[in-house]
Design a protein that fits this description.
mainly alpha, Serine Threonine Protein Phosphatase 5, Tetratricopeptide repeat, flat, disordered N terminus
């Protein structure tokens, strides 16, 4: 969630973890925002008794929590469950509520694979790479590779992107190559070569290019991308951080250098843990 949410209700001491989106929820406003913004991606995963307990024990909404528990016991639909939360919390205007209701009706026709694929794309976009991989694996496990070749290849390519962002470049290269084998897309072969270049020395990489028979134009473009990624732009945040560290070290401010280095490493660790959800 990237927008600022003004919360008037109680903030939970123990948040609810919304597994489908990899997000901790601390208030009814956050919950409503998430449900509203992702209405088209919701499925049976939202019908969680733990969410009812959260509303009763943590969010200060026992009446709503108990009402939802009764709905679950009666075998309610996803739409009924979600609309009850949004209606009873008075989070949306009547017009907004009707819009969400229509979205839920429209998306009810989407098959489960399509929702999981869209959810994986959303995870990838928001830096939840491990969760994105889980969603993509779920979809691939129930797809027919031969009947849905384009979609299958697209998911493999996205998996390669997720693995690459986790620095698992061998796995990334395998996904990109498999995607290329199915689709023949240039973007996949370029990413395959780029990942392969980062995990092999130049001699081994050149032998790999010859073995697979890629043309010189593709190789030149991959080499250009490799040089571009190997040396970040001087205006990038990463380059500025490294430049500052170098300045501190060269000026003899060793204590400040190590303090700044520790801060940078801690930030990178937090970012990586977030992408892997190691804090959950």
């Amino acid at each position: 969630m990237s927008e600022l949410i003004l919360c008037h209700s109680a903030l939970a001491t123990n948040p609810y973890y919304f597994v489908a989106f990899g997000i901790h929820i601390y208030s009814i406003e956050e919950l409503c925002f998430l449900l509203t913004e992702n209405a088209c991606l919701l499925d049976e995963d939202v019908l969680d008794p733990a969410l009812c307990d959260f509303l009763i024990r943590e969010a200060g909404m026992p009446r709503l929590g108990n009402k939802l528990s009764e709905l679950l016991e009666g075998g309610c639909s996803v739409g009924e469950f979600v609309l009850t939360i949004l209606t009873d919390s008075c989070y949306l205007t009547e017009e907004e509520l009707l819009s969400v209701k229509q979205t839920l009706l429209d998306s009810s026709g989407l098959d489960r694979n399509r929702k999981h694929k869209l959810r994986g794309d959303n995870m990838l976009k928001n830096g939840k790479f491990a969760l994105a991989l889980d969603e993509y694996r779920f979809v691939l496990g129930s797809m027919d590779r031969e009947l849905e070749r384009e979609t299958y290849a697209g998911i493999l390519h996205n998996m390669g992107c997720a693995y690459a962002r986790l620095f698992l470049l061998k796995e990334a290269a395998e996904c990109f190559y498999d995607a290329y084998n199915i689709s023949g897309e240039q973007k996949s072969v370029l990413q395959f070569l780029l990942a392969s270049r980062f995990i092999n020395d130049e001699e081994k990489y050149n032998r790999l290019v010859l073995r697979y028979g890629f043309n010189e134009e593709i190789k030149e473009e991959a080499d250009r991308l490799y040089k571009e990624f190997s040396k970040p732009s001087e205006r990038s945040l990463q380059a500025k951080i490294l430049s500052r560290l170098a300045d501190l070290k060269e000026s003899g401010k060793i204590s400040q250098y190590y303090d700044a280095l520790e801060d940078v490493l801690n930030d990178w660790k937090k970012e990586y843990r977030s992408s892997m959800l190691l804090d959950h």
